[in-house]
Design goal:
Layout (H helix, E strand, L loop, with lengths): L1 H9 L13 E10 L5 E8 L5 E8 L8 H20 L8 E7 L3 E6 L2 E4 H4 L11 H4 L5 H21 L2 E2 L8 E4 L4 E3 L6 E2 L32 H5 L5 H16 L12 H10 L13 H10 L10 H5 L7 H10 L6 H15 L4 H15 L6 H14 L2 H16 L5 H9 L1 H7 L2 H16 L4 H10 L9 H18 L3 H13 L6 H12 L7 H16 L7 H16 L6 H36 L28 H8 L3 H4 L7 E4 L2 E4 L6 E6 L4 E5 L12 H18 L11 H10 L4 H14 L19 H13 L23 H7 L10 E3 L9 E3 L8 E2 L25 E5 L5 E5 L11 H5 L1
Antiparallel strand pairs: 1-2, 2-3, 3-5, 4-5, 6-8, 7-10, 8-9, 11-12, 12-13, 13-14, 15-16, 16-17, 18-19
Helix pairs in contact: 5-7, 5-11, 7-9, 12-14, 13-14, 14-15, 14-16, 16-19, 19-21, 20-21, 21-23, 23-25, 24-25
């Protein structure tokens, strides 16, 4: 726009005071023409209609170098020539769209857009202030010359036969080329009218050519016929002679055959040579036209061919020339004839230069495009021109002609042709025009009623997908394809929709595929094999494309549950089923690999985060295996094996309610909640041992934790340094004597026996006391005890044992009451003290195999430990462990069950006797 304003300001003073300046805006000078190239030609735009035009301007000051009378004569000649031109209407005569306007400074009139005069094209560029680049680089093509000569001949035929007018000054200055490349006659300043328009052979008034008059006021001497100068007679053959000289000048690059330089004497000498002229003297003229040009330059007017005869020369039957001639008369043809012509036009266009196609062939096609029935025949040629043209030429000449055609829905071939050339359109059309004109045409094609158009559109869309902006692809194109896939009843359209989506995956991102494409596949109603395989193909591309990268979670939760049922569809054959299974296996492999890698990383992180254990008391069972619980001979069940294999074996042992630490120097019993354990060394003495729980996972210990740890270690060392308790054993003989001799204190007797148990232990191979892990009572001892008990049927007073059965939480109940409540006397029951192989079962006192109730000896009272004396208190469920706690008075008490009873307890029957 800025350039246009500069040009407009530069020529704003060209038409000062001229009325034409009110209707036209002048852009810039493009050429010159007329006698002596006095007319300046400007490109212009009509203000009211914005149509392009050309304005011819003659500045009167340019004739100031001649006399006043000659200047007035020249102005009259120029004014008369324009007035005569305005009266004529023919395709080969320049059309005037605004008559001549005169002001004090200039003459001006407006015509159809003009490119240049033939004289300018041949190299004469006088009276042009700034020569345009297009004019400097312009070169006439042979086909243009052939067709231009024919056009001039057609114009002369009209003048001679219809207008009864003699041009009188045929030369390159009087011929102009329009923007479309058409050669047209102008410069009627020296035209001659017929004396009798009614006769078939008109006669024209002759004007003598005088040497004493300036050449601007007379016809161009180098192109005049000899009879016009020598015989004082002229007619239609005179114009044909001038046409022959013009043809020679065109092929000779502007050089004339008669070089007179405005001298009449020189003309007469050269004219005599014409009588003896040979064809070789016209070497610049092509051979096919040379003889006919020689006839045109014959001295006898009657020998010269007329315009109609010249048009039939075989030289003008060349294919390109015939094509241009046909386009000139296109409006006269029928549709069938036009269609046949347009079918062969692309072959001709491929052989012609780009400029000829754009300026000579395209304009007639654009005019014909208003006939919708002819558009399918015109489009291939127009798109071929678009392929030849540059980006700028396409936008200036071809795109404006195609925009109205984008909206056509009928005939259907129009949309098909555009679809086939969509890549070309998108590559050369500006983005703004693509959004405005091209993409709406694609959307209309997807919504068309014809399945053929839909299929073609779907097959072509992937070819130009990279030219479509991603927002348009995501928000406009893909939704329409999905809608078409669901709404259509044609299987081929549905399959092509899926294939189109699969080919467009390369232009989508991961999240759009996960959120929009894959969920859409599950909504497709049909289950034909072609549809199923298309769905499988989309999943396969999504799986293998590294850019999309479907996650394992989506595979496991959404995709595999959808694909597996499809794989067993009854419509699939063996090959298709194998394809489904191959993709499913790939997906399963990806899920397995990624999830295993994730779990391995998590496990490694847990291992790295574990802190070093500060104190760990490791124990071994009696066989050195480290298990605190006795082994069962029962084989593991299948469920146990499965849980063990999947890492859930810890749940199988979750019912264990204590920690057992077994050391080589003794057996320690500890509760789960206590930090101090009771240790029994090899000498049978018990000593408190500090058992530190496993520290949580930490990298470092705080200061408070370190202080606490130091205190525990000091307490442990202090307890270890205390002297062992060595109770004095009591012999069996003394017990028997006491029983036989008189009243007996059963509590003291039982305590004495307890001391003897711990003092009479014998070490075993592992360093543990005999019977520490297994109960040492044999079947013989059981039978002996049972026999002694059964032998005493008399009532026995058991009140001495009441203190052992007292619970701090319940009301005391004597053993006699418990026995009487059971409905049996002690004489009918047996008293059995035993331990199961399971460490969780307590030592109980109750019904034996021969009958009688079982009396649990749990919930016993907490008895303080006195140096040199061991007191048995509360029996907990954890028999092997004896928990040592600190009472409020600072005393130490032992609670728990004994896991190892001394073999001396086999004589308990003696106590009862």
């Amino acid at each position: 726009m800025e350039v246009f304003n500069k040009l407009k300001s530069a020529v704003s003073n060209v038409l000062p005071g001229n009325p034409l300046s009110r209707d036209y805006d002048l852009i810039g000078q493009v050429a010159s023409c007329g006698p002596g190239l006095l007319w300046k030609i400007y490109a212009a735009v009509k203000r009211s209609t914005k149509e392009e035009a050309s304005v011819f301007v003659f500045e009167k000051k340019s004739a100031d170098h001649i006399s006043r009378s000659d200047r007035e004569t020249l102005i009259d000649l120029l004014r008369g020539g324009v007035q005569q031109l305005t009266k004529l209407r023919h395709p080969q005569i320049l059309a005037v769209i605004h008559p001549i306007e005169e002001s004090r400074e200039s003459l001006a009139f407006a015509t159809e857009p003009v490119f240049a005069s033939l004289s300018n094209v041949l190299g004469k560029l006088s009276n042009i202030s700034s020569v345009p680049r297009d004019l400097q680089e312009f070169q006439l093509h042979d086909m243009e010359i052939r067709h231009g000569i024919l056009q001039l001949a057609e114009g002369l035929r009209f003048l001679h036969n219809d207008a009864k007018l003699l041009h009188g000054n045929i030369n390159p200055e009087a011929v102009v080329l329009t923007r479309q490349g058409t050669w047209k006659l102008a410069g009627f300043e020296f035209c001659l009218h017929s004396t009798d328009p009614q006769v078939s052979d008109p006669m024209f008034l002759w004007r003598e050519w005088r040497g004493d008059i300036i050449h601007l006021l007379q016809p161009h001497l180098d192109f005049l016929a000899p009879e016009y100068v020598l015989t004082q007679h002229c007619g239609a053959p005179s114009d044909m002679f001038s046409l022959g000289l013009l043809i020679y000048a065109v092929f000779a690059k502007g050089m004339t055959f008669l070089q007179c330089n405005g001298q009449l004497s020189s003309y007469k000498k050269n004219a005599e040579k014409l009588r003896h002229m040979t064809a070789n003297q016209l070497g610049e003229v092509p051979e096919g036209l040379r003889e006919h040009v020689k006839l045109l330059l014959n001295m006898e007017p009657a020998v010269r061919p007329d315009a109609a005869q010249l048009s039939k020369v075989p030289y003008f039957e060349e294919l390109g020339c015939v094509t241009l001639r046909y386009l000139d008369t296109l409006f006269q043809r029928e549709n069938i004839e036009k269609s046949n012509f347009f079918k062969g036009l692309p072959k001709v266009v491929a052989k012609l230069p780009k400029r000829v196609n754009l300026h000579r062939i395209l304009p007639p096609l654009v005019k014909e495009s208003f006939n919708a029935d002819m558009v399918p025949f015109l489009l291939p040629t127009m798109l071929l021109m678009a392929q030849q043209a540059s980006q700028l030429e396409y936008q200036q000449h071809i795109l404006p002609a195609l925009i109205p055609l984008f909206k056509l829905q009928s005939p259907v071939q129009v949309v098909l042709i555009f679809m086939q050339n969509m890549g070309l359109l998108l590559s050369k059309t500006p983005k703004s025009d693509i959004q405005t004109h091209v993409l709406p045409m694609i959307f209309r094609a997807l919504e068309a009623d014809s399945p053929q158009i839909q299929e073609l559109c779907l097959s072509i869309i992937p070819t130009f997908a990279e030219l479509v902006e991603y927002p348009t692809l995501k928000n406009s194109l893909i939704p329409r394809i999905k809608k078409l896939c669901l709404a259509t009843s044609t299987l081929t359209v549905r399959v092509n929709s899926l294939l189109c989506i699969g080919q467009l995956l390369d232009y989508m991102d991961r999240w759009y595929v996960m959120d929009e494409i894959l969920p859409f596949l599950s909504t497709i109603p049909s289950r034909e094999p072609a549809v199923l395989m298309s769905i499988l193909g989309i999943h396969k591309v999504s799986l293998e494309d590294s850019k999309l990268g479907i996650t394992k979670d989506a595979l496991a939760s959404k995709i595999l549950p959808f694909l597996i049922p499809l794989s067993v569809d009854s419509n699939l054959n063996l090959t298709q089923f194998n394809a489904f299974m191959a993709v499913i296996r790939d997906m399963l492999g990806k899920v397995e690999g990624e999830h295993r890698s994730k779990l391995e990383q998590l496990d490694q992180m847990k291992q790295e985060q574990r802190s070093v254990e500060i104190t760990r008391v490791s124990g071994q069972d009696c066989d050195g295996s480290g298990d605190t619980a006795p082994h069962h001979n029962k084989p593991p069940s299948m469920m146990d094996k499965f849980l063990s294999g999947v890492g859930l074996s810890t749940l199988m042992g979750s019912q264990k309610s204590g920690l057992v630490d077994v050391k080589s120097n003794g057996t320690s019993f500890s509760s789960q909640t206590s930090g101090i354990s009771m240790s029994v060394n090899q000498q049978g003495a018990t000593s408190p041992v500090v058992s530190t729980p496993i520290a949580p996972k930490k990298t470092t210990l705080s200061l408070e934790e370190k202080l606490k740890l130091a205190q525990q270690q000091e307490q442990q060392q202090r307890l270890k340094s205390q002297s062992s308790l060595n109770p004095t054993p009591a012999s069996t003989t003394s017990i028997k004597n006491k029983v036989a001799g008189g009243p007996r204190d059963l509590t003291s007797t039982l305590m004495d026996n307890g001391r003897s148990v711990f003092s009479s232990r014998e070490p075993v191979g592992s360093g543990l006391p005999k019977g520490a892990c297994n109960w040492q009572q044999s079947n013989n001892s059981r039978q002996t005890l049972a026999g002694k008990v059964d032998s005493q049927r008399s009532k026995v007073d058991l009140s001495a044992f009441d203190s052992l059965m007292t619970s701090p939480n319940t009301a005391p109940q004597s053993l006699n009451q418990m026995m009487s409540a059971s409905g049996q006397g002690f004489g009918a029951t047996g008293l059995q003290l035993y331990s199961h192989s399971n460490s969780q079962n307590p030592i109980i006192m109750g019904q034996s195999t021969w009958g009688g109730p079982r009396v649990g000896m749990t919930q016993g009272p907490m008895v303080p430990i006195v140096p040199g004396q061991t007191t048995f208190g509360q029996l907990s469920n954890d028999w092997p462990a004896a928990s040592v706690t600190s009472s409020a008075m600072g005393q130490t008490s032992a609670t728990g069950n004994m896991s190892s009873a001394a073999s001396n307890y086999s004589t308990l029957g003696d106590l009862l006797g």
